Amino acid sequence: MTVVSNTTPLSELAKVGKLELVQAVFGKIIIPQEVYDELTTGSHPAANLVPSADWIEVRVIQDRQRLLTLQEQTGLDLGESAAIILAEELSAVRLLIDERAGRQIAQSRNIPVVGTMGLLLLAKQLKLIPSIKDVLDELRNQGQYISQKLYEDVLAIAQELF
After folding, report:
1. CATH number, domain containing residue 56
2. For FRET with 127, which of 25, 63, 143, 159 sits at 20 to 30 Å CA-CA?
3. Does pTM surpass 0.85?
4. C-alpha radius of gyration, the chain, whole number
5. 10 and 35 part of one domain
6. How far is it, in rounded angstroms, from Cα 15 to Cα 17?
7. How far apart are CA 68 and CA 56, in angstroms?
8. What is the per-residue pLDDT across 53-68, written as a single tens digit (0 to 9) for each?
9. What are the φ/ψ torsions at residue 99 (nearest 5 degrees)?
């Protein structure tokens, strides 16, 4: 199963010490070089975790022109555009991406997407985590914006809304 990831799900899960959930749910994932560069720049927790994660494979986009064209046409950032193009090049079964515009463009190109919330729901379903609420609360505490509606919807699906 080929899963490609964008930056945000990996960086946000790294912030709360849950990066290993990506491996536990999907096994090996593939990221484009552009995403690797975003993840390993600065003092973010992912900067130390991603290079040592042997389950993350970095690939170079084969068709740079497609990447630049997508970025120019959509206004997506380089990492999002690269993740979408790499998912197409590899015929990925999933693209792990959170940003709404990126998700919409990926779906319009028939790329199945899942975000951090979907990954957390899968992790709970697989009994890898006892509670999604704890992880969502920690993500919020670390500064990730999660709307109240999404927060409540995810907890309702997880049967954690009281």
Report:
1. 3.40.50.1010
2. 143
3. yes
4. 15
5. yes
6. 6
7. 24
8. 999 999 999 999 999 9
9. -60, 130
Q: How many residues does the chain have?
A: 162
Distances (CA, A) of 50 to 35, 76, 113, 114: 11, 23, 21, 20
Kindly tell me the burial class for residue 123, based on how many C-beta atoms sit within 10 Å of its own C-beta (0-12, 13-18, 19 or more).
buried
Torsion of CA 138, 113, 101, 97, to 10 degrees: 40
For the chain, the domain total comes to 2
| Virtual torsion, Cα 126, 128, 130, 131, nearest 10 deg | -90
DSSP 8-state symbol, 52: H
**What is residue 98's three-state secondary structure?**
coil
129 DSSP assignment: -
